[in-house]
Amino acid sequence: MTMKSRALFALVVTLLPSVALATEAERSVMSKAEISSLEARVITTPPAALNLDPFYQKYSDADGIPVIGSQTVPDAAIVVARDILLFMLSERPDIRKQLVHDGARVGIMAIDETTTDLPEQSDWKKPAIDDPRLSKCDVRDYAKTIGLQSDRDYWAARARGMGGIYTTGAAENILGVPDTRYYGENILVHEFSHSIFNAIRSADPALAARVETAYAHAKDKRLWQGAYMANTLDEYWAEGTQFWFNSNKAYITDTLTVVDAEDFQAHDAELYALLAEVYRPDHHIPADAYYKHPARMNSAHINLDASGKAKDDCFS
Q: Least buried of 21, 33, 243, 251, by fewest C-beta within 10 Å?
């Protein structure tokens, strides 16, 4: 990071008169959010050049990556999301450049909006039973769960954020509002890391190949039995990213707890070393509401059998 970047990152927001802060939760998060430039204090309507649906009325620029939302998304959520992106990309300008080239952008949902309210995702259908994204338990229970849901209801229940060239997150999660879904882990960090890994496939294919090897080794060693992290290569990277930034729900078995970056390094040193080639060495996104938060320990206990296999395992 350049000296100029460090100086800009050092601007800590204690009060932003131009940002409408509606709740105590938003004020709490914004008091900690480091803003990378004075321009971040200004949220505008989206530039016409983006050719966005009129649904989007708010815009901020994350060094070439648009952060957008409807009129009902709190300004604070837009600004904090922007800062999270900047910190995640601070060490790898080549990855940021690839994301900009690919047309990456990030949309934020208001608390009363859902995935299919977003214009780009309004026609999304629920997955078929043979969709490779489904877990073993999703397939097992399909007729009693997904099979009975409408497309909208499926996506509303499935996620408060999605990865991809268009990454999405939820305002209440970004702002750390207690008693909301996914409280205790940062879903935007997870979902945007999917975009980062997709960019790595183009910008640094050798690194992507080494991540794939690390995933195979982790599967062979049963490092993440019963965890979502074991489901696919991409989830392995995304969940690992959350652990790197001390912003993931704990992985807990009878003999092991992984919650902080130090635990993660000890448990999966191979993936940790690869993440170190991409992310900040301080393991900290200052605007992240869940950094080392005690709510990360509100996680299900994974029961392992004598051989180390998870019982009723949906993912491994």
A: 21
